[in-house]
Amino acid sequence: MAERGESSEAVMLKKTEEEKLRKGKMIVGDESKAGYEEEGKKVKLVTSDGVTMEVEISIVKEMEIIQTFIGATDTDDSFIFPISNVSSHILNQIIELVKGEYDQELAKKLSHDELKEILVAANYLNMKTLFHFIATAIANVIQNKSVEFVRDFFGIVNDFTEEEEAELRKTNAWAFEGVDED
Amino acid sequence: MTQGKIIAQEMPRKILVTWNRIEKRDILSTMPNEIIANVLSRLTLKEAARTSVLSTTWRYQWTYFNGDLDFDNSLRTLLLRHEHVGLLTKCKVFVREWERFMSRLQHVMKSLKCHSMQGLRICMDMGNPWKVTEWVNFAAEKNVETLDLDFSYNFMEPFFEISENIRNVLSKSFEMRALRVLRLASVDVSGEIIESFLASCPVLETLCVRGSKSVMRLKVQGQGLMLKHLELVECHILHLHICAENLVTFSYTGDYGNFNFETVPSLVEVSFGGKYCNYLLSNMEDVQLYAVLSQVHVLKLELFILYGGILEALPVLGNVRHLELRIRHRCGGQLDRTVSLLSAFPSISVLKIKFMRTTIWELDEGWKANLKHEYPNLRELEVSGYRRDSCQIELLISIFKKAPNLNRIVVDPLTSMHVQRSPDVKASIRETQRDMTIWYVDALKSHVPPSTQLIVL
């Protein structure tokens, strides 16, 4: 939590700077559709854990679910979009990935749960590039891994009886050829 | 860490902490099949199929796989062929394994439920040629983006060949609206079949046909043809007509034929080999050929030392920047033909010389290369198949002398006969050949200009 407090302060400082910038621009641009394209503009999102976050428009643009909202509603600064399936922690991770231009190195730092939750979030928010990125990252984690590892990764409870599993391994024996189970 | 701005926190801290510490949940299992299929499709088919034993909900997830289907039995076929056991035993083992592989392939194809598939690759002994039509049908049903059928790794000379009947079935058009890449090796398709693919695959970009004896005539044309890469290798085409606005690269090895490059405005890279290349070298001033050769930036040619001697009265091809010569070299023999050919390319900046050793011949002692021109633009020289042969040394040294701006000489221990191998095989061949190559290269060292880097890969 301390970490969050610190960075909020840093963000606050940045915010005043950006506000100045925004004000400067507002004189030129107008606040309608064209104004929305403005760089540095932020959109307020409420996450599943009730946190309201301001997110840069360039990132929000990748969230097609919100784009449809924006298209439909006459929006102004005070409008807040609820994203009820995404926690603030995951939203922060997503922002980091987008800003890091989807570098697979970044994905290596994510925990298994984070990977899965980002995939779910990417699907919900309809972020195509993020979805592609995170699906690839998950595939990289589980490829060439044992059945047990994959079960553990997805948190799957094995509900096959021993006989059923053995039978299934026999049916799909070709898939298990040349694999060392460890 | 925190990228977004938190401007309001309505929830007490305690709840937030529990939220962040989510227990391991099988969250993906509750998601639509397409999402899991999407992840599984990024694995190999085998890996995806192994998820069937995870739990009952996962049992059939793999059947929504829509990635690249790759059935490759070529290595096994190759190993079996070189096995030191009786021929009959070998045949029995081969037939048993082939049938098992085929039944697996059919089982998988039947199991898959997706309406579309990234790609299909089958690389094995063809066995029953009628299967080809089934596979092409499957590829069409699944709307694949890449289709790669390679039957060049056969156990023995094929018993059955593609018959006229099969060719008739194949030349009825298969609707493949998404097909971008089509590779057919040792499928022995006819010109009509290739033309029908060109007509029924509107987004086809890469077409590679290898080892087809039946392509006598071929017209590469069509309204809005997207074709960018055309490769006709080990084919013996008598009449070839190309009218392709978007064609960027063209490659042909085979016998001589009558080729008409009618419209190829985007063509920048061509490669020729076999007897056709020999014809081309003697007829470079031919209006049609000259038009193509003078247009391209990258040119790859094969030189047969056994045929013909010095090439004379060559036109100057000033547009060629990147020249690759595959030289079938009789070891010890002179390289006058290569030297004379080089005079046509004064503007090259990259030169690749690939020696391909044929028989050892009588030694041409004291052969002098006598390169005529300077190559002021030549920056990089790449050599493979070099064997410390006195004529090879003489050729290379004279190139060093005539290239005042040469930056790098790269010697590759891997000869061009291995270029088709997979990266790991290539790496291991390089490793075993490296010491020998370093010894070969020693003979060049004292002649390399001080400003030039000499690298053994």
UniProtKB/TrEMBL annotation, chain A:
Stored PANTHER family: SKP1 (PTHR11165)
Function: Involved in ubiquitination and subsequent proteasomal degradation of target proteins. Together with CUL1, RBX1 and a F-box protein, it forms a SCF E3 ubiquitin ligase complex. The functional specificity of this complex depends on the type of F-box protein. In the SCF complex, it serves as an adapter that links the F-box protein to CUL1.
Record note on quaternary structure: Part of a SCF (SKP1-cullin-F-box) protein ligase complex.
GO annotation (BP), single: jasmonic acid mediated signaling pathway
Keyword Iron: no
Keywords: Kinase, Transferase, Ubl conjugation pathway
Family in the record: Belongs to the SKP1 family.
Domain SKP1 component POZ: 41-97
Keyword Transferase: yes
UniProt GO molecular function: kinase activity
Domain SKP1 component dimerisation: 128-175
InterPro entries noted in UniProt: SKP1, SKP1-like, SKP1-like_dim_sf, SKP1/BTB/POZ_sf, Skp1_comp_dimer, Skp1_comp_POZ
Pathway it works in: Protein modification; protein ubiquitination
Entries under Pfam families matching the protein: Skp1, Skp1_POZ
Domain of life according to the entry: Eukaryota
Native source organism of the sequence: Vigna unguiculata (Cowpea)
Coiled-coil ranges (or none): none
Designated name of the protein: SKP1-like protein
UniProtKB/TrEMBL annotation, chain B:
All residue ranges annotated as the At1g61320/AtMIF1 LRR domain in the record: 176-419
Domain F-box as annotated: residue spans: 28-64
InterPro entries in UniProt: At1g61320/At1g61330-like, F-box-like_dom_sf, F-box_dom, LRR_At1g61320_AtMIF1, LRR_dom_sf
PANTHER family: FBD DOMAIN-CONTAINING PROTEIN, OS02G0105600 PROTEIN
Protein name: Uncharacterized protein
